[in-house]
Amino acid sequence: MNKKKKLVLGLGNTILTDDGVGIYVAREIAKIVDNTDVVVEEAGIGGLEILEIIAGYQEVTIIDAMTTGQHSPGTLFKVAIEDLKGGAAFDRHHISLKEAVDLGMGLEMDLPDEIVIYGIEIQPVREFGEKCTPDIEKCIPEIVKKIIKENSLASDMIK
After folding, report:
1. Residue 117 within a domain
2. Radius of gyration, alpha carbons of the chain
3. Are 120 and 22 a contacting pair, CB within 8 Å?
4. What's the pLDDT tens digit per position in 8-36?
C-alpha cells in the first residue's frame, strides 16, 4: 500500500479554553504549510478512535494540551508514546494512545512508522471559552514555528 506522507493532528476541545490549543496550533500550521505531502487535521477524540485518523500515514505529529506540572504554561515538549498514561483526549474510554496503537498493530492496521507527540503545558481547565487564555495564546506562533521546523513540514513550501 502506498502510504500518504505526513499527518499533523491537533487534538483538544475548543470550548474548554486552553484544552483546545492543539487544534489552534494545527489550524495555524495549516495556514502556513503548503506542501502536498502534509495533511493537517483536528479532532476531539482519542483512544481507539484515533487509529482511524492516523491509519495510512508514514509519519504522524500529534499536538495536544497537557497538564504535567513540570513546565511553565505554554511550554512545548515532546512526549514518548510509552510515557503516555492517558489524560486529555488520550484517555477516552480508559485506553491510552499507546494501548490503542499496540492493539492496532496487533490487528495489522496500516499504522504510521513514526509518531511524534507534542504536549503543550496548560493549567487545569476550569472554565468554558472558545479561545485560549492570553498566556497560552501568546505562545502559539512560536510553537507553530518549532513544530514546522522540527518536523520538516515546510522547507521552502510556505504559503
Report:
1. yes
2. 15
3. yes
4. 999 999 999 999 999 999 999 999 998 88
